[in-house]
Design a protein that fits this description.
The protein is mostly helical. The protein has helices at 13-27, 32-45, 50-74, 76-82, 93-104, 111-127, 134-142, 146-173, 177-202; strands at 214-218, 221-225. Strand 1 (214-218) and strand 2 form a beta hairpin. 33% of the residues are buried.
Length: 226
Amino acid sequence: MGTSKGYLPPTGHLWSETKRAVSSMNRNNYSSSSIGKAISSFSKASSGTRNQGNAAIGASGAKALNFADLVKSIGLDNALNQVGLAHLAGQDPQAVFEGLVNYFSEGTNSLQQSIADQAMQEYMEEMMGSVRNKDELEDAFAKLESEVFIQDYLTKYVQVSFFTNFAEKINALCKDIGQAVKMQERIKEFIRLEIAENYKRDGLKSGSATLSWTTKIRACRINISS
């Protein structure tokens, strides 16, 4: 997970504050409080692109949830036929996985959609971790719960978005690649736990002081706002 080649992080007062907060994480050995301040600052700085983020994960997320509903009602092969992926019916799980990742992607050139697509790929890769055959792949989609999916996909999106902007800076601040990987995992875990806690407490209906992004699904669209 890292910064896209050729991508220049945004500039401005809020982004400058976020960059300082990211540097502060390193000085404070990536403590929970320093990570929290960096994520909170990042959330505020990202407010200008939040509507684009809404549309990006909403489009990809809706496709994934709709496909899972089809698998539950008519089975994997019939679901593939229904969404125009008949050529994948009967294929091995890896081929189906690759085809679905492309299908869930909206294929636009916007940064937010690229982040959403990367988050979806990472989510799918984790889901495929225990899949060994077609029946297990069908079972994985049949058991997909919308609320769990929203929480997990949002987590991936925030993680990918943060590291798209700051992975290179974090890597440069760490003494070696081993420390950089360890610290990135610590940040990802903080984001996961923060979103999980919000979701458990109030369904993400209101943001926390640390991570003010909220989520809910309405008419097959995921909305995030501060």
